[in-house]
Design brief:
Complement Module, domain 1, 12% helix, elongated, signal, Metal binding protein, secreted, disulfide bond, PSP94
Length: 117
Amino acid sequence: MRANFFIAVVAVCITMALCSCFFGPMQEEKTVSGKIRKYCEYEGIQIMKGAKFDTLDCLRCACSENGFECCGIGYKAGVIQPPPGCDILHDGCEPLLVMSKDYTKRCGTGKPVLISP
């Protein structure tokens, strides 16, 4: 029962942490025929209006009429406070809770971190 409560609390913390965002204005340019084409720009790349994507830097980005928005996902979503006796490792974009005294074991269950093939 304690492990189920722990997992539920962690899930709520992770899903509610989408708060580290940045924004950019909509850009526009004239085409050869004189039409106005609107787009967003991210790291020098022009992004079409309506496009959405995730990056390996753990950002979820979207280009809309309002401009460009990127928000952190996973461990970049915001501050996640681990429970006492636990630490957070970055497993790709996902936060992985491990025991402070033994990083090879998951926090709460004590099961091994590594997944066997």
